[in-house]
Design goal:
213 residues; alpha/beta
Length: 213
Amino acid sequence: MSRKLFLVRHGETEWNREGRIQGVLDSPLTNEGMIQARRNAGILKSMLVKRLIASPLGRAAKTANIIAEETGARCEFDERLKERDCGTWGGMTWDEAERSHPEIWHARSENPYGFTPPGGESLADLEPRIRTMLAELELGGELALVTHGITMRVLLRCLLELDTREVSRIRCPNHIVYEVTLDAIEAHCQHYLNGEGPYDGLLLSVPGVMSRH
């Protein structure tokens, strides 16, 4: 029997628009972010999603509440879906972060999965809590997780058993929904953008170009 899970990123925030690093800090959804949440709600409603589990950070919680209002789905929150802690880089633009620690900036591109921002967490640090959460879930087509860009990448690695080197190429824009189907033999992924789709596979960046989000 196949099992299905939907992954939704929160809508655009003010800091997303300004190119600022959020991590466990927060900023409000923009008007466009609320529109994105409603478009994604349309996808989930058509898929008969009845249950949402969301990060409790404000931008994800607001997105989940909009989706719940549009779909009638039951919404709950789980700390394990929070974004990774970006440490002292939180609130900075990417250029400011690079200037603040030029001596370690190159390590980010050399080992994106294992790199730890000053005072923060690496993607590898998120993996144990994500795997623990997934092991507890009873997956089915009626469940969606509302989370963040980096956390979504780790979720996809765990669900699809991706090599850590592939993870940095996964794109998770604010208007994306991933649909992961698991069966006894393999996992299959497709995605929706701006309320349209599905499109087969992962949304990936150009080879050799690491996304900043």
